[in-house]
Hints:
alpha+beta; 9 helices
Amino acid sequence: MNAHLSTALTLAARGVPAMPLRAGKVPFGNCPACRDNACGGRPNMRIPGPCDCPRPCHAWAAATTDPDTLTGPEWSSCWKQAAAVAYHPGGVGLTVVDLDHADAVAWARRTLPATRTVGTTRGEHWIYQGAMGSVNAVRDGVDIKSTMVYARWLGPGTGTMTTLPDTVRALIAKKPSPVRPVTVAVPIGGGECRHRTPVYLERGIAMAEQRIREATSGVHATVYRTFLAVLSAHGRCGCLTDTHAARLFAAAQTKGESARHCVDAWSNARTALGM
């Protein structure tokens, strides 16, 4: 059996969602329509494309614990070309602090609680128990990899894994609350929001709730893309409230999403939009 596939199956048996990577740490699409992100995926923004496949089939969403998927015909040729194995840290409740050079490693040793570490080509992965949002470049040479991203599997590492500390969570807590708790945004001079009317906003939220509830596959990706669309249309003018966000989160939870995933998906959508 291919060595990378064997590693992926071992991870899957332990409940760790795994997937193949080609050269350059780039994921494969495991169906013809999604090869090379032909369906519109943007892996640099952690956004799977709007494909009509039976399941999410590329980027972080492709990681799976299903051995039939890993060994199935969609990925048979991928494993022959695979250069590495990746996994979805957030999918198994982990956070990877990716330290990309020696200065970043030195900073972590001064600043972060000791935990399990894995050596990389240029630095180290520090792995903590607990999931959070994922953000690149939280400081020079430091990325946070957890929900809605993949990380290379580089072995089990050494040391005892510790609980995700507040010092790591604080690395991405530099922006205000994901929603602005105001009911109406009144610009200077009075009147309604300059960007969208209340009716437009209500219709947008209702359509977003319907889109999530009607999802029959790829619920994670559907929730994320829906949050992204709502924030893109309404997130900068001040009209969104906690009530609007709660409605979207409730719709997602009717499809089996956890409250934690909703918060992370909302945060990642804001990050992708630069909000």
